[in-house]
Amino acid sequence: MSTVKEFPFGSPKKENFELHTNLNEKRVWNKPVKKHFTRAKKITTVPDLKKVKTPGLNASEQAIILPSLEYFSEPDSEGLNGAVTPDEIYSYITDMLINTINKVGHLPWQKEWTGSGSSNAAMNYASKKEYTGANFLLNFDIKFDENKEPYLVPVEFIQPYYLTFNQIVEAKAILKKDSKARRVIYYTMIFNYDSPTAKIKTSDKAKFNAFVKANGLTKQDLKINLKKIPVLKYYNVFRADDCTGLKFPKEKADKKQTNPIEEAQKIIDNYPNPPKYTFIGDKAYYRPSNDTLNMPSIEAFNSEAFYYSTFFHEMTHSTGAEKRLKRDFSGKFGDKSYAYEELIAELGAVFLCSESGILFHTRENSAKYLQSWNKKLVDELENDNRFFLKASAQAQKATNRILGREVANTETPVTPEKLVKKKVARVKKKSTQIELFSGLNAKPKKAVCQKKTIMTKAKEVKSDPKPVKTISHLDKNSLAYKMANQSKDVEYFTIQDKNISRLLGKIEKKTKDSVFISLTGGEGSMKTRMAFQFMNAFAQNYKVGHASIEEHPESVLYFDKAKQYLNQKAQENLFNPEINNLSSLHSLILKNDVIVIDSFTKMKEIEKSFEVDRDLRKKYNGKLFIVIFQQTTGGSMRGGSKSQFDADIVLFTEKFEDYKQNYVYATKNRYSLESGLKFNIYEKQLQGAKKEKGPGTEVQTKTKKLSFKVK
Q: Is the pTM of this model over 0.85?
């Protein structure tokens, strides 16, 4: 069983295929389904969404779903089939899921299965790419009940491949008579450019690019006159098991055989910035209040796969924490948000089991729980035909977070070194959130011993709070209350370079919002070289993302600076993809702790409305941003005074005729009281200071320690 990349739709109620000499397909449709698709085929243009009452997903939902679909740029004369309305697609899948629960008693991945074929992963025969995202339904067969309503059961593949009809012909294979097709939904983009001097409407991206070049269109022209409209379409695929004459890749004799349990453990061990793992008692749960994931020991489970599917379920819950993907944890058992979160966790466990090469197992003693939960799920599916697809998209997002690849197939994930943090015990507050979520309420058998090769039991730090004075009238919104209850577990960025540490001060790693450092200088003032020194300093302990827009990240100039300023460890922890839109910048930010942007001016060219405070500092939590600004002839930051006021640290470069004298100094630093510090860029060290306080000076004020206990 595996995740899927395309958007399967399932076959209609009944569909037979007969081969003819001209290779056309003769279809026999069930009337209700035929009605939908007959209507869909007649749609040759995109409907006006303003006139459609239920156009499908809203913009934010499409931003999640659409990237998981396969994108095709089509020549105008082609197109695999007509456009279909999203709501028809969602309704068909939703109806099939509801009937599956009613017929079988549970969703297909809540039932243990075997015999999934040679690789457990449904994939395209030609591309060998697995189907992922919300479209993993190609791993399931569609059966029909006594009322001819469709429901899902796991596929028992011999070869887990699907082919289009043309791919079967190209492979010189033969499709067996009466073979059933599955529908794969994809999206294509219609480029509609309409101006007084030039017009085009096409879904062929190459043709549109040629049109832009031929007419000399600028970015401003496109911004004013171009409309991009994503349109859902579908095509048919057939199972390789229903074909004869196909050739399948042979397994290499020297191919390394891996233990699937080891692969599962790697996923757990390599989860970036994971919650605290504990292995106490006989319950599995994730607790948002203190970001703790608890599991019984592996010996307590009937099988190792059972253990890992349970662990993956709780890991998926943990991705919804405030500091990760910020999902809604306010639900109670039986309501919509709880059912939604549970569905996300179930799907996430399925996806992660597929990634690790093991079969998905449900927990024992959970039939009653599943029956209750599935009843609520049916209610929600009936009320919202997009409920499943939205949950699938969130589950894929959670899976990508756990695997360290928020944007699939763009960069190879690098496993960061796990930081050892010292946590100060504090008085446990009563949580307003439920403990998410005691899995499926499994109570595995008592563990006999703990295998250290797989897990090491976490040590619990027991708090020993001192009695505190009770003030019953204290307002929770008051400053006194907030100061008394502020977190004692404050984390600071560690900077090993003593000179840079002293220049910047003791920088807090914020739990809410991020730190913003501006670096401003004129042409030739060596501000980019200073940025490389900052990156080298931070990359000794953190993952650093470099949005190098001024210099191409794969240019000779860039590599020369990297060799000069970055040591081996920094090079391993630095990532510099090409940034050409806000989406690629967003992906870079999510994957890294420190982000350097060169420059603000170039980002404004990419997105005119781009603002540091709104789009960086307040949008993300726990990050450190270093943004390079150009200097005006008047000596100020190009980009206005707003950015200068927003910055936590404001740095300027001073340029001399002899570049070896160029230095960096701070005009504002919220994290240091030292003044007069000058960092020589060429010498890579401080020139001097008015006060010597040592590296990482912290701004301190003497305050009376308050401690309150509120009834």
A: no
